[in-house]
Write a structure and sequence with these properties.
The chain is of the alpha/beta class and 416 residues long. Helices cover 33% and strands 24% of the residues. Among the domains are: 140 residues, FAD/NAD(P)-binding domain (3-Layer(bba) Sandwich), CATH 3.50.50.60; 145 residues, FAD/NAD(P)-binding domain (3-Layer(bba) Sandwich), CATH 3.50.50. The chain is built from eleven helices and 25 strands.
């Protein structure tokens, strides 16, 4: 059996791990990057808290001892379902079974200025670009003698009050409190404002009201200015325009306000639903196809009785999708019946600031230091590579103890 899987995120990697060492199934993983990375910690890369290498691992290194796993670097261009092949940016690959696990990309909701000028948070490149942008702006603020210009350079607006928006708001606030005064004595008494804007009435919309209240309290105490029930409508001339008519002068708009599934050209139009997600049956097979599957954030599965409108786009769903589909392809190969997918909800969590986090479990809630410690532990486990786990744990320990990580490097400064 020849399987091609497009996308090496949570779904793709867990599928590959589960099917590894079965020589009767040859798997080719296709990805535009040559590495797997851990998206939940991108915001810590973007705020110079951890290194990109702590959350990244090369596919070829991962597959070294797996004779049935192969890597192909490229992007999906088109699916040719009748010919059983895909066109990529680097050539054509044939398959017996195709698995789509490309995840999502940033959704700008058709706002062109925001798409061109805002800073997203979806990839390692995005995180490094944001880190450079923030550090360069602070350097410019140190040099300028214009007070309004300095305020614009130091103001930061985050659009989106979900976990990513909350986490990066808290981290930037901690950075301003613990680092800016030490590194930039010239502007010690002139910190900018951090604005967290969300169209929803509460932060952490999918989480419990207790988690929402805790996030609001902690971020407010850190000095973050929260504007709920307010949408960002435009961004032009270093001004963020809000739906209520208010404007905020800033040269930094961080966009975490929504995602949309990546395109899969060549699939039947009737298999695509809201948010560009791909409709699949209880076995993750794409509707209207015979040998194409979709897993993770990219798919919409309505067969699970507990989630009739589709599963939430969470890492745990993607992980469980990947593992079960690998087992089902083994079953197909062995002539055994397929197993239907049912999501096992293990809970959701979000870190808010140093020593502050919230955890929603199916039958409970907790917060504070214990929740923060559990968050750290849970996020170390999935990191690829024992060396990365150790390095991440040490970097966290050192950064939290000293309040002074040493990663504030402008690696790719703007050209003069």
């Amino acid at each position: 059996m020849n399987v091609v899987i497009v996308g090496g995120g949570f779904a793709g990697i867990n599928f590959s791990k589960k099917i590894a060492d079965d020589d009767s199934i040859q798997v080719t993983l296709v990805d535009k990057n040559n590495y797997h990375f851990f998206p939940p910690l991108l915001y810590q890369v973007s705020t110079a808290f951890i290194e990109p290498s702590n959350i990244s691992y090369p596919f070829r290194r991962m597959f070294q001892e797996k004779k049935n796993l192969h890597f192909f670097m490229g992007s999906l261009v088109k699916i040719n379902a009748e010919a059983n092949n895909i066109e990529t940016s680097n050539g054509i690959l044939s398959y017996d079974y195709l698995v789509l696990a490309m995840g999502t990309e940033t959704n700008y909701f058709g706002m062109k200025n925001i798409e061109q000028k805002a800073l997203p948070m979806k990839t390692i490149d995005d995180a490094l670009n944001l880190r450079n942008h923030i550090l360069l702006n602070i350097e410019k603020a140190v040099r300028t003698t214009d007070k309004s210009e300095r305020e614009k350079l130091l103001n930061i607006v985050i659009a989106g009050g979900g976990p990513t928006g909350v986490e990066i708001s808290g981290m930037i606030a901690e950075m301003g409190r613990n680092i800016v005064a030490k590194d930039y004595p010239e502007i010690r008494n002139e910190r900018g404002n951090i604005y967290l804007i969300d169209a929803a009435p509460a932060l952490l919309g999918p989480m419990s009201k207790k988690s929402q209240a805790e996030a609001l309290k902690v971020l407010t105490n850190l000095g973050v200015k929260i504007k709920s029930s307010t949408a960002v409508k435009d961004y032009s001339d270093d001004k963020v325009m809000l739906a209520n008519g208010e404007t905020i002068a800033t040269s930094t708009l961080i966009w975490t306000s929504g995602v949309i599934a990546r395109e899969a050209p060549g699939l039947p139009k009737e298999s695509i639903t809201r948010g560009r997600r791909i409709l699949v049956d209880e076995f993750n097979k794409v509707l209207g196809t015979q040998n194409i599957f979709a897993i993770g954030d990219q798919c919409c599965q309505t067969s699970d009785k507990d989630y009739p409108n589709g599963h939430p786009q969470l890492a745990q769903v993607a992980i469980q999708h990947g593992k079960l589909l690998a087992q089902n392809l083994r079953n197909i190969n062995a002539g055994k019946p397929l197993l239907a997918f049912h999501y096992h909800n293990k809970g959701t969590m979000a870190i808010i600031s140093k020593f502050k986090a919230v955890v929603d479990l199916p039958h409970g809630f907790f917060k504070g230091f214990i929740a923060w410690f559990v968050w750290l532990f849970i996020h170390i486990i999935p990191i690829a590579g024992y060396r990365n786990k150790a390095k991440l744990a040490f970097n966290w320990f050192w950064s939290f103890i000293t309040n002074d990580p040493t990663l504030r490097l402008i690696i790719r400064p703007a050209k003069d």
